[in-house]
Amino acid sequence: MSAVARLKPARRANRRAYGRLKSVAGFLVVVATTYLGLLAVTFFIGRVVPIDPVLAIVGDRAPAHVVERVRLEMGLDLPYYQQFWLYMKGVLSGDFGTSVLTTNPVMADIRRVFPATMELATVGTIIGALIGIPLGVLAAVKRGSFTDQVVRIIGLVGYSVPIFWLGLLALLVFYARLGWVSGPGRIDVVFEYTFTPVTGFFLLDAILNRDWAAFRDIVSHIILPASLLGYFSLAYISRMTRSFMLNELGQEYIVAARAKGLSETRIIWGHALRNAAVPLVTVIALSYAGLLEGSVLTETVFAWPGLGLYITNSLQNADMNAVLGGTIVIGSVFIAINLLSDVLYRMLDPRTRSR
């Protein structure tokens, strides 16, 4: 074998390694740029809102020299670029400042309330996926039929009706009138001194503690707000599933499968949905991220002690450190979920790996 022939495999391997390195570098640049943009947006929001952070701390009756001293301590006399640099350093080190409302470090408050939001969004996404995917498949298979129209109307209502109105209506019917579920809150006060949280995810904690009475009470509290979030997730997932399935059912391999005599059940669920599942990963991930950032109204209506309610209460009390800290956390999680869905998409679909 000639020297040139021996060099060809090595050159191909080097090109592949260079391509992977370039892809990873581009990926990191996108992450850094996106996060920098998030920090810049939250920083300037904190500067343009008509709330003086100094007065929020010392009160509007504090002497002028106290106000000026606190302003200097907070670095608000510095140019904006220096303030942004200090702000970015603090955020990257996990320091979001101190909450005026609770007097705790904002990061400590977020660690306390964020598991409640994640638990609610997770259950809502599971409900939306378990119901939305079959509905989307059914609508695609029955395209143009009465069933298809019903599924599309369900999705349209999910997009159109305000969630706070549905939440109030659901509380009135299922809690106040029928008594099928527990009311606002995350757990009954009866379990306040007997239930011991471990992870912050109450459903998991109840299972770990084998406290089945608390588990039933937690399910009774979470089922209504999670179902509402699941309904909005269902609307998006079912619509996208229908679109993906219509695209797959029109492919040539479906015609070939029918020509071979395969059953419709196997063609739809074993072939078409299997190929449509790849982009559905991204859809479900985006739906989950959307529920994490969009659960503010739901948490407010149901008095759910999560990050959404924490941000709402902080905003009402001019606690901008808490508001901006919560916004950054939600934005960071949204970015992470988007990047994770992109990685999973590339892993599941080999065609995208070379892009």
TrEMBL record:
Pfam families listed in its UniProt record: BPD_transp_1, BPD_transp_1_N
Any single Gene Ontology cellular-component annotation: plasma membrane
Coiled coil region boundaries: none
Bilayer topology: Multi-pass membrane protein
Single GO molecular function: dipeptide transmembrane transporter activity
Ranges annotated as spanning the membrane: 21-45, 120-141, 153-176, 218-237, 276-302, 322-345
Major location (coarse): membrane
UniProt keyword terms in alphabetical order: Cell membrane, Membrane, Transmembrane, Transmembrane helix, Transport
Compartment(s) where it occurs, according to its Swiss-Prot or TrEMBL record: Cell membrane
Domain ABC transmembrane type-1 stretches: 114-345
Superkingdom as given in the UniProt entry: Bacteria
Entry keyword Membrane: yes
Family assignment from sequence similarity: Belongs to the binding-protein-dependent transport system permease family.
Protein name (Swiss-Prot/TrEMBL): Peptide/nickel transport system permease protein
Source organism per UniProt: Mycoplana azooxidifex
